[in-house]
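Worked Example 4.2. Consider the chain below.
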Amino acid sequence: MRSPWTQLYLHLVWATWQRAPLLVEPVRSEVYDLIQADCTRLRADVLAIGGMEDHVHLLVRVPPTIAPAMLVKQVKGSSAHAVNHSTGIYKTFRWQGGYGAFSVSKRHVPLITDYILRQEEHHRDQRLWPLLEPPPAEPAEAKPLG
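Applying the procedure from the previous section yields the following structure tokens:
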């Protein structure tokens, strides 16, 4: 083989800052378009994008030249920046710092695609995959200093 041949699929999940329900229309569509554009620039193929008001799921086929952390940093950073500067809806839109990244075998791509595209139905019917959608953490109790 003269060049690498890979099939690297990632399911990425991340949330808005403090899981605030900020991804409502028209912001949600704009954010998805921004994520799609960044992935295209990075030569990652978006296979599915979806989510709810407080989080995003992204299924991508990535080239071997890009690390998952770099891809997530880029799409989160540029989408938050664009929402803050172009929509006029939010002035302090932020994503949480963390994210989930799961490798996906080619044979599971249709299953994950369906899960991502049917997020509203899964949440409405409480048919969530606990590994991908853990319950929100309880706020930490304040501890005295010293």
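The CA atoms of residues 26 and 87 lie 9 Å apart. DSSP finds four helices and four strands in the chain. Compare this with Example 4.1 before moving on.
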